[in-house]
Write the structure tokens for this entry.
Amino acid sequence: MTRMKVVLQNKKTGQFFKSPAVWTDRKSEAFVFRDSAAARDFYLKHYIPDVEIIQYGEIEMD
């Protein structure tokens, strides 16, 4: 079974969320959320403005 990788991208800088106060230019280094709802809940809870949810690739699930 597979699922999409879900990350947050800053709309202004194009960088990807890696960890609190750390952003990266590399999508491959970004923190991968469980799903879009988890990503949305995270950025709303932590008041992170100007981000969008990006879904790409696949993750193998056991």
